[in-house]
Amino acid sequence: MPTLALSPQRVTLTSTDPTCRPFPVNGLPVPFGALPGEAEVVDEIVELRRQKLSLGGIAASLDERGIPTRFGRRWSKPQVRRILRRVDPALAVPLDPYTPPDPEMAHLTYRERERVRLRRRRAHHHRTPARP
Q: Is the pTM of this model over 0.70?
């Protein structure tokens, strides 16, 4: 049974099992969450994302609570995004930053709303002033 020792500088894993290590095995890295104690962190990341927390907010939350990365460093947005993308790709998509006040646009996706806004901007830009 491997032991996981956490320190502020580095996470070290002592085991006689060669497959249980955070370094590349057969050229492929062991994904975060595969080692003992990491699955709980992955579950926490997924739960925070389902509460609509941003990637940076999740990283900051993990840092504030003293949950280290595999190597004892601070969390970053790309790390959180990679973990979410592996668990559920839909969770890695950026949150919709805009909630429209226009009820006609409320049912549209973010991309569709951006298209409508762009069309409106272009239409406004190409208007010619009325001549007397």
A: no
Tell me how far apart the alpha carbons of residues 62 and 66 are, in angstroms, rounded to a whole number.
6
Residue 80's Cβ-count burial label (10 Å; 0-12, 13-18, 19+) is: buried
82 conformational bin, left if phi > 0, alpha if psi -120 to 50, beta if neither: alpha
Alpha-carbon gap, residue 78 to 52, rounded angstroms: 17
**How do residues 77-113 score in pLDDT, each as one tens digit?**
999 999 998 888 888 877 766 555 666 777 778 788 8
Which residues neighbour 44 within 8 Å (Cβ) at sequence distance 6 or greater?
62, 67
Percent of the chain with pLDDT over 90: 24
HSE-up (13 A, CA, CB side) for residue 88: 9
Cβ-contact 48, 58 below 8 angstroms: yes
Q: How far apart are CA 68 and CA 44, in angstroms?
A: 13
84-94 pLDDT tens trace: 988 888 888 77
CB 75 within 8 A of CB 86: no
